[in-house]
Design brief:
Elements (H helix, E strand, L loop, with lengths): L20 H25 L6 H14 L7 H22 L4 H4 L6 H29 L5 H15 L1 H24 L9 E8 L2 E8 L2 H10 L1 H26 L7 H31 L1 H16 L15 H23 L2 H29 L6 H23 L4 H35 L3 H30 L3 H6 L12 H7 L7 H14 L5 H16 L4 H9 L2 H26 L8 H41 L11 E6 L5 E6 L6 H20 L7 E2 L3 E2 L7 H31 L1
Antiparallel strand pairs: 1-2, 3-4, 5-6
Helix pairs in contact: 1-2, 1-3, 1-16, 1-23, 2-3, 2-6, 3-5, 3-15, 3-16, 5-11, 5-12, 5-13, 5-15, 5-16, 6-7, 6-8, 6-15, 6-23, 7-23, 8-22, 8-23, 9-10, 9-21, 9-22, 10-13, 10-14, 10-20, 10-21, 12-13, 13-14, 13-15, 14-15, 14-19, 15-16, 15-19, 20-21, 22-23, 22-25, 23-24
């Protein structure tokens, strides 16, 4: 089909194995395991691993190992849908709820479970209503959804496609194990390169993440979207931070690159938050007709009593059902707020705000995931935006009108914002899964039921895991120092003993940040100037008709992430441009039908390999997370990065680190070469799909069998760069003439 779908099943669904008991059982088990692993990983390292592709691979292995002849691609898709839902929900929970501990409050199991259920189910319902708009009509790329489709399709078809994806999966796993497991490349074992230098009274910064998964995401989304994300990074790191450094000065006693990142994290990141808020509002406003039309069509279709047959792959859950469920969730949320806060007025206002904000952030999160993927979706940025809006409402209603105490105001703010944060976290993942389902020909309503089941599984596992981990290790250093665990049955009081007891505390950086923001808001300190600057920049982008959300994401994300995405976009541009150049002989004018076929073949090959790289690196993230969990529970076991550690020490915060290791961290230039080798292997594998070049402008006619693919690519690259430069100059001239 024209949109890349691989629907090969009967519309009546009679021969389709999809929502089966075995798929539900495997999905529940995998969902519970991946949710628990990602909960720990997020609390320890401040990040989670997208579970869609690992779950698809594991599902394929499990179902194939059962030697069932009637296993369907749709069953595999259903399993990965359920398993990935819990991981995303876990991100929303662990980034917000532990902030209660930072503020000196208690984190309760039942309360956390209720927050997870309310936010998860509400996010799923709202996202269902937007499926047709974003996936069918807008046709957003959803890179992880596309990559997951390639994994499932390769497993279904077998043959060369399966061989390619297994090969790429092995490469990604190998690279992921070295970077995430052994931690032997990059800066202090972290897979990124960065540096800052003094320049004309200020500083310049450069950096990129050595991640094959991010490069693969850039290939999937393409050069256009990657360019705008990178533009946001240039605005933040190339313009705003250097100007702020001149005006405010640089933090002293720090490495120049660390000082640069400190200014970005404390100030410029909030510019991205402000730009995303305006961008989200503008996106919804610009799509108001599409949204209204889509909802109207869905309602009309749900109430239409005609005998018209709706195709199986277009059947969503009845939109009236989603509205009823959302209404019930809103009422339950009101009751939950009333019971927890004790104020019926603030509970009503909070529930009303939740309903509006939940739909807004469902749309924004779904849109952002469609551009950069779920793994890179800035959930914490949306959470910060939610906190600011919630804080204003709570301050007006709770403080000015009701006169509540500061602690009550902070508790109410986090309670309201956490449900919205869980809602936003789940929305992006649901849309990625529905994109995969759309491409493989799944039945939407069955997949949506699987999403709800996955959310409920995650809502049971994530809160239990969070509470269990806090009791075992303490979550956040702040909470641990305030309430240290017992050592040999005695609660330590000496600062040195407390530091030693808290050496294993989970860092939970997002929870620390959110707790500090809430305390800052009600203590009179919040970075409103930078948020306002974000509003202004977003307004300018809208005025110039640039894609504001993509640029805003680039401002919010660290430059090294957008740089890696840009590398992938450039590779895609070169590969697709080369395919057209070798077929048509030039890059000007309308593309021939033959060139379209060759470009699509090259693109599909790259997406398939990208899916394997993403899957391999993500799987190793899960495996490393399991090793970390087991090493903390079973003391003789050690984390992979400590396997080659011959001597350890304890830092000022009580955390152990490796002083001497038999397997040393590679020097910077070797780390870069190691990363580039994998990138060049990826390029070589993609180039195998390019049409053969019979003649070369530099060498004339070649003897039979004489091949110089490297020179071919270099020659084609020169032509593509030259044409791209001319197109850029022409575009600038057109814009200037239009302005005049």
């Amino acid at each position: 089909m024209g949109d890349g779908r691989i629907i090969e099943f009967a519309n009546d669904g009679s021969t389709v194995h999809e929502l089966t008991l075995r798929a539900l059982l495997i999905g529940i088990v995998l969902g519970a395991l991946l949710t628990a692993a990602n909960t720990y990983l997020g609390l320890q390292l401040g990040m989670t691993v997208s579970a869609s592709i690992p779950a698809a691979v594991l599902s394929m292995i499990i179902l194939r190992s059962m030697r069932l002849k009637d296993v369907s691609i749709l069953e595999n898709n259903l399993v990965q849908t359920m398993a990935s839902a819990g991981e995303s929900l876990a991100a929303g929970v662990i980034f917000t709820v532990p902030a209660l501990l930072v503020m000196g409050m208690e984190m309760r199991l039942l309360e956390t479970f209720i927050i997870a259920v309310l936010g998860g189910v509400l996010g799923t319902m709202f996202t269902i209503t937007l499926r047709r708009i974003f996936i069918v009509e807008e046709a957003l790329p959803y890179p992880e959804g596309v990559a997951c489709r390639e994994v499932l399709a390769a497993g279904e078809r077998g043959g060369s496609g399966m061989t390619a994806i297994i090969y790429a999966l092995g490469l990604g796993a190998m690279y992921g194990w070295v970077t995430k497991g052994f931690k032997i490349i990059g800066k202090h074992g972290e897979p990124h390169l960065s540096g800052a230098m003094d320049f004309l009274g200020t500083r310049l910064y450069i950096g990129f993440e050595m991640s094959l998964a991010l490069v693969s995401v850039g290939y999937i989304v393409g050069i256009r979207i990657a360019s705008f994300i990178f533009l946001g990074g240039v605005i933040g790191f190339g313009i705003l931070v250097p100007i702020l450094g001149i005006l405010q000065g640089w933090p002293v006693g720090m490495d120049p690159a660390d000082a640069f990142m400190a200014l970005w994290s404390q100030h410029i990141r909030f510019v991205g938050v402000g730009a995303m808020v305006v961008g989200g509002i503008y996106t919804l406003w610009s799509m108001r007709s599409t949204i209204a039309s889509g909802v109207s069509k869905a309602i009309k279709g749900a109430t239409d009593d005609s005998d018209a047959v709706v195709r199986r792959e277009d059947q969503d859950i009845d939109i009236r059902t989603t509205f009823y469920v959302a209404g019930v969730i809103a009422v339950l949320t009101f009751l939950f707020y009333w019971y927890s806060i004790g104020s019926i007025i603030l509970a009503f206002v909070g529930a009303l705000f939740l309903t509006v904000a939940a739909f807004f952030f469902s749309a924004v999160a779904g849109y952002i995931a469609g551009v950069v993927g779920s793994s890179n979706s800035p959930v914490s940025g949306m959470t910060i935006a939610t906190l600011m809006a919630t804080s204003l409402i709570v301050w007006v209603v709770g403080d000015l009108a009701l006169g509540l105490e500061t602690e009550e105001l902070m508790y109410a703010t986090l309670l309201i914002a956490s449900v919205v944060a869980v809602n936003a976290a789940i929305a992006g993942d649901v849309m990625q899964d529905l994109k995969t389902g759309h491409l493989v020909g799944a039945t939407p309503w069955k997949q949506q039921i699987a999403e709800v089941v996955g959310v409920l599984v995650g809502a049971m596992v994530a809160p239990f895991t969070v509470v269990l981990l806090h009791r075992a290790f303490r979550i956040t250093k702040t909470a641990c120092y305030a309430d240290p665990p017992a050592v040999d049955g005695v609660i330590p009081t000496d600062p040195n003993l407390i530091a030693e007891a808290c050496s294993g505390a989970l860092l939970a950086p997002q929870a620390e940040l959110i707790g500090a923001i809430i305390q800052g808001v009600f203590g009179g300190s919040i970075n409103l100037p930078m948020v306002t600057l974000g509003f202004i920049i977003a307004g300018l982008l809208i005025w110039k008709k640039l894609p504001v959300m993509s640029v805003a994401i680039g401002i919010y994300l660290p430059l090294q992430l957008s740089s890696s995405i840009m590398i992938g976009g450039i590779i895609a541009a070169f590969m697709l441009g080369t395919a057209r150049l070798r077929t048509d002989g030039d890059l000007i004018g309308e593309m021939s039908e033959e060139a379209e076929i060759e470009v699509k073949k090259t693109h599909d090959r790259g997406v398939l390999l990208s899916a394997g790289l993403i899957a391999g690196e993500a799987l190793m993230g899960v495996v490393v997370a399991l090793f970390i969990v087991l090493s903390d529970v079973v003391k003789p076991l050690r984390r992979p990065d400590e396997w080659f550690c011959s001597q350890t020490a304890v830092d000022s915060e009580g955390a152990s680190y490796c002083v001497e290791r038999s397997l040393a961290i590679l020097p910077t230039w070797i780390s870069a070469l190691f990363f580039l080798w994998f990138v060049f292997v990826f390029i070589h594998l993609v180039s195998r799909a390019l049409p053969r070049k019979e003649e070369d402008a530099l060498h004339g006619n070649r003897p039979p069998g004489f091949d110089m693919p490297v020179l071919d690519l270099l020659h084609d690259s020169v032509a593509i760069v030259a044409q791209g430069s001319r197109d850029f100059v022409d575009a600038v001239r057109v814009d200037d003439s239009e302005e005049g």
